[in-house]
């Protein structure tokens, strides 16, 4: 009798155990949010964690790359200048671009490949950038994707008009910064968050740039203010994904385009400052693909981005 009861209980519990095993499996990735924080130093991420305290509270849910004394490095594959770096990220290979004046990328990009392989509409592949030149790395054929870079109005891709939220943010940016070519990050992020909630694109790149601007102006306080704002933006992004119930099916990747010089050279980057090639990364709901592996030591770079995202989306 006892044996029969035990067998009955075991049989009753088996489906529950099986269901628990299935629910613990990661959900398939349906979209990717890619965030670049222009010119943010690895030192400000890994050494002085006060500027990304909210992100570090999520560290156990994701993975950092390029931390000192870890089993990985991360760096810029191209020269450590913004447009060459962004073009290498979107191409998956170093491009013949040697400065911010090199013009439009000449090969099919990550966003274009996602759009074509998954047969998506234009609104499903988007970039929002504070820096006005990022579009030159996102498309090799203008108009293929939804591209909004710099101090220009945001329009709904379906109506070609600004909805109420877009129009309000457009007007605030215009009043706040009427003459600049670049847009303030707070408006870039707000527009991208609204777009995410409205369209839930399959791939969206959010490119923020206030930190690099403040660093070039040798404004350390302004640079630190930008870092703390980024921490708030990222926390809002993760909270929004959870509220929309798409957090577990969304791969989020954070990184930068380049590092900065050491010491008094912190305001600069480029070929004359080889230390500015060292960068960092963070991924949630996935792992970056290394560009080289030596035992348990992995090397990551800007060339890790495209293959990671393409593999996650199955393209």
TrEMBL record:
Short name of one Pfam family: Phosphodiest
InterPro entries: Alkaline_phosphatase_core_sf, Phosphodiest/P_Trfase
Keywords: Signal
Domain of life: Bacteria
SUPFAM superfamilies from the UniProt entry: Alkaline phosphatase-like
The UniProt record lists the keyword Signal: yes
Signal peptide: 1-19
Protein name: Type I phosphodiesterase/nucleotide pyrophosphatase
């Amino acid at each position: 009798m006892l044996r029969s009861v035990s067998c009955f209980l075991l049989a009753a519990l088996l489906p529950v155990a099986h269901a628990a095993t299935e629910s613990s499996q990661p959900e398939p990735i349906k979209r990717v949010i890619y965030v670049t924080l222009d010119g943010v130093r690895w030192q400000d991420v890994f050494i002085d964690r006060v500027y990304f305290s909210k992100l570090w509270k999520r560290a156990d849910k994701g993975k950092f790359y390029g931390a000192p004394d870890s089993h990985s490095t991360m760096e810029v594959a191209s020269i450590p200048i913004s447009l060459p770096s962004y073009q290498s990220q979107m191409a998956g290979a170093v491009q013949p671009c040697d400065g911010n004046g090199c013009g439009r990328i000449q090969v099919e990009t990550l966003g274009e490949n996602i759009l074509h392989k998954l047969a998506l509409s234009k609104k499903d592949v988007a970039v929002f950038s504070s820096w006005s030149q990022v579009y030159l790395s996102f498309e090799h054929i203008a108009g293929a994707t939804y591209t909004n870079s710099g101090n220009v109005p945001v329009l709904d891709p379906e109506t070609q008009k600004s909805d109420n939220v877009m129009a309000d943010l457009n007007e605030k940016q215009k009043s706040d910064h009427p003459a600049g070519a670049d847009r303030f990050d707070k408006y870039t992020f707000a527009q991208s968050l609204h777009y995410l909630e409205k369209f839930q694109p399959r791939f969206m790149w959010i490119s923020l740039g206030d930190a690099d601007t403040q660093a070039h102006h040798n404004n350390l306080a302004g640079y630190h203010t930008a870092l703390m704002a980024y921490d708030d933006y990222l926390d809002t992004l993760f909270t929004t994904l959870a509220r929309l119930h798409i957090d577990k099916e969304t791969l989020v990747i954070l990184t930068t385009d380049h590092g900065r010089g050491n010491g008094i050279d912190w305001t600069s980057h480029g070929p004359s400052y080889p230390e500015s090639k060292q960068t960092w990364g963070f991924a949630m709901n996935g792992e970056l693909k290394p560009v080289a592996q030596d035992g348990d030591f992995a090397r990551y770079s800007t060339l890790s981005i495209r293959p990671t995202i393409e593999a996650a989306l199955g393209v």
